[in-house]
Specification:
Length: about 750
């Protein structure tokens, strides 16, 4: 009889009820799971799970019942949202006003399309066109004012709305006025400039009351970016006039700049303390966070941004700090909707975006009460909530793991993982000196492209002696790659002969050939094997718990970049000549959106840099722990893997180009490479045929991983500069954009 019961159970499982394909995808995304994680758990290929979510195929036993169980559990955690009922307002007591709604893109609350990273090593093989803008919803006749007084509508001459990312009807009513507001004072009135030209009256007379108003009436904020995450706190930007109004200094003294905050005894801080508000350990600085301890799901926190205190660093935000309030609200609003509400500098925001997309823990439902409670269990695919120590070879100088080393020890390649971007140059050959131009190519968002599809470690490292190299296993490997000869390598499946003396080594930032064993990240060692050479690691620190942690991060930043460039007239599907024409002067078409582009790029590089943040004062001494080490996102191994893969991606293109054309680079700086050519345009030396580029080589386009024209100078200029500074290997990539060389290149 038991056999019959088993057969019945199997029959039921074979017809296990599954939700519609779109709901399957929603549930997976809500919990922050990637397709790869689901596929690994169910022991199927990622393409199989993609087919289930697309409705192209249906799961069969025994995977079907396991898949159904997964979806049932997720449905308990993330029920399908009910259609919101239309609010009913008492016309006798509610003040209404007519206003132009904020552009839906500036208020974008979606996480963007789910990104399916391919297994290709080259990002451009998985191009995704810029998201198609959705028309903004028409303005409503009237709506309740979030303040005690009517608000004003868009000011005359305000910038046009940015195309919407989601229909206005889907905007979260809790945050209907957008993610942030710029507070200014005009003619004695305090006004809050929100995204899309919306302006609110602010009744607050003090900073504590401004915080209260923001939380209770302003309807500012942004929904969570992933299922297990939390909504973003509202951001208030204070102009100089607003600082004066609320008793804050317009600028910081030299001492306050060094400390990064105003003194604890400042009268405004005393006001906040009396009102039972708290500040984080960073105190009241350019990016201040004011909060009360959370009580259950009730979280009260407002973030302040003070541009006159250098909150918006001109290196990354351009002239944003000098913009009028409405224009500044537009710039920050577009950035917030496409990336996330700023949490500090672009570097801090880049790191916070990783955590927002992969929260360390998640809520679970109590089986007895049915209530949701925050679990201490690590969210799958995240880095968890506890920091982990890096491997000794991954530790930067001064790390506590190295405290027992003799003083003044200089660690060499066999002691220290040194994966950095290229800074390489060589003298020009006689043949190159007969050409007329030097043309620079720049890889779009190169480090973001390097993160795309990269398998990184999620947990602690394990030390292994004499391991067999596994290109799918993230880690750091001690291996001798000095035998790799660039004069004969595999390009694809064929061996090709090259002039190795004209190529940089792919294994060192300076392009020097290794002389013995050294530590390398997995992508570097994998590339040595790809070039056709055996690799035999001596030892390794590997991470068996791994995943594509940065895929969602890459996808959101990529979409933000492509959407903003499309608004500037540079689309993802332009022909090469049209692309070059569109890039010419694109920043002048809308300088404010050009600021957003700059900030998005800085978010990529800064976020990756934060993965290995060094001590920042605070009386630190070598061998002691510093604040950043207490973060689970202090992960120098992940940073090294991204940089390694970025450098390898560029070298692979260089090899393909050299094998096909016989042309070699004369200088490389990070993501910029310079070639000598007969003409001033990239099209004068890139081997396009019928509009198609060399497979695996350089391709013009705006997608991350593709290249744009960085600048052109003459060969005569290059020779004169090198002669002037008596530096035959001066890195001309550093000056190719505008030709300005102010001092001897020291590689810094």
């Amino acid at each position: 009889m038991s056999e019959l019961f088993d057969a019945v159970d199997a029959l039921l499982a074979s017809r296990a009820t599954l939700p519609p394909p779109a709901e399957r995808k929603r549930l997976r995304s809500a919990h922050g799971l990637t397709i790869d994680e689901v596929a690994t758990t169910l022991k199927v290929r990622r393409a199989t799970v993609s087919g289930w979510e697309a409705g192209k195929t249906e799961p069969r036993p025994p995977e079907r019942d396991a898949y159904a169980r997964l979806l049932d559990k997720l449905a308990e955690l993330y029920p399908a949202p009910a259609e919101p009922a239309a609010p009913v307002h008492d016309a006798a007591v509610v003040t209404t006003f007519t206003a132009v709604p904020a552009p839906a893109e500036a208020r974008s609350l979606s996480t963007g399309p789910d990104f399916q990273a391919s297994d290709m090593t080259e990002t451009e093989n998985t191009q995704t066109p810029a998201p198609t803008p959705v028309a903004a919803a028409p303005a409503a006749a009237s709506r309740p004012a979030p303040t005690t007084r009517p608000t004003t509508s868009r000011r005359p001459g305000a910038k046009k709305a940015v195309p919407a990312a989601i229909p206005a009807g889907e905007i979260d009513p809790r945050f209907e006025n957008g993610p942030l507001a710029v507070v200014d004072v005009e003619d004695g009135k305090v006004l809050a400039y929100c995204t899309g030209g919306l302006v609110l009256d602010v009744p607050a007379k003090s900073l504590p009351s401004l915080v209260d108003w923001t939380l209770k009436e302003a309807k500012l904020g942004q929904p969570k970016l992933s299922g297990p995450g939390r909504p973003a706190h509202p951001l208030i930007v204070l102009t100089e006039a607003a600082c004066e109004r609320y008793g804050l200094p317009v600028s910081l003294t030299a001492e306050e700049k060094d400390a990064g905050r105003i003194p604890e005894g400042h009268k405004v801080i005393k006001q906040l303390v009396r009102a039972e508000w708290k500040l984080t350990k960073r105190g009241f600085g350019p990016w201040a966070r004011i909060y009360r301890p959370a009580k259950g799901s009730d979280r009260q926190c407002v973030q302040l941004c003070i541009p006159s205190w250098n909150a918006l660093d001109a290196r990354f935000w351009g002239d944003a700090a000098q913009l009028p309030p409405a224009e500044l609200a537009r710039v920050l609003g577009v950035y917030a909707s496409r990336v996330m509400t700023p949490r500090g500098s672009t570097a801090v925001t880049g790191l916070e975006l990783m955590t927002a997309l992969h929260p360390p823990t998640h809520a679970v439902r109590d089986e007895e009460t049915g209530a949701l409670r925050q679990s201490e269990t690590k969210t799958p695919g995240s880095l968890g909530k506890n920091p982990v120590d890096c491997a000794p070879c991954e530790a930067p100088d001064g790390h506590p793991l190295l405290k027992d080393l003799p003083r003044f020890t200089v660690r060499g390649p066999a002691d220290k993982l040194f994966e950095e971007a290229y800074d390489w140059a060589r003298p020009m050959t006689d043949a190159e000196c007969t050409l007329r131009y030097l043309v620079g190519l720049d890889v779009n968002m190169a480090f973001a492209a390097g993160a795309n599809g990269l398998n990184v470690g999620l947990g602690e490292p394990t030390h292994v002696k004499a391991p067999a190299f596994d290109p799918k296993l993230p880690g750091s490997w001690l291996v001798d790659l000095s035998h790799v000869d660039l004069s004969k390598v595999k390009a694809g499946k064929e061996w090709v002969e090259l002039d190795g003396s004209l190529l940089p080594s792919p294994f060192t930032p300076k392009g020097d050939r290794p002389t013995g064993p050294a530590w390398y990240a997995t992508p570097t060692v994998a590339y040595a094997a790809e070039l056709g050479y055996d690799v035999a690691p001596i030892e390794a620190w590997v991470r068996y718990e791994s995943g594509r942690y940065l895929d969602g991060w890459y996808g959101r930043l990529r979409d933000a970049f492509l959407a903003t460039m499309a608004d500037l007239g540079v689309d993802a599907d332009l022909a090469p000549a049209d692309f070059l024409a569109a890039m010419d002067g694109y920043k002048e078409r809308d300088p404010e959106l050009a600021i957003v582009v700059s900030a998005i790029k800085a978010t990529v590089k800064g976020g990756l840099g934060k993965l290995r943040e060094r001590p920042r004062g605070e009386g630190w001494r070598p061998g002691e722990r510093w604040r950043a080490l207490e973060r689970p996102t202090w992960r120098p191994d992940i940073r090294a893997a991204v940089i390694s893969r970025t450098r390898i991606n560029l070298h692979r293109k260089i090899v393909k180009h050299a094998a096909f054309t016989g042309q070699y680079p004369i200088a490389i700086l990070s993501d910029c490479v310079v070639y000598a050519a007969n003409g001033p345009s990239p099209l004068d030396f890139l081997p396009y045929r019928d509009g198609k580029p060399l497979p695996g080589g350089f391709k013009l386009g705006i997608n991350p991983g593709l290249v744009k024209h960085e600048g052109t100078q003459t060969v005569l200029w290059g020779e004169e500069v090198r002669e002037k500074f008596n530096a035959p290997t001066l890195n001309l990539a550093r000056s190719i954009k505008d030709g300005t060389v102010t001092d001897i290149d020291n590689g810094e």
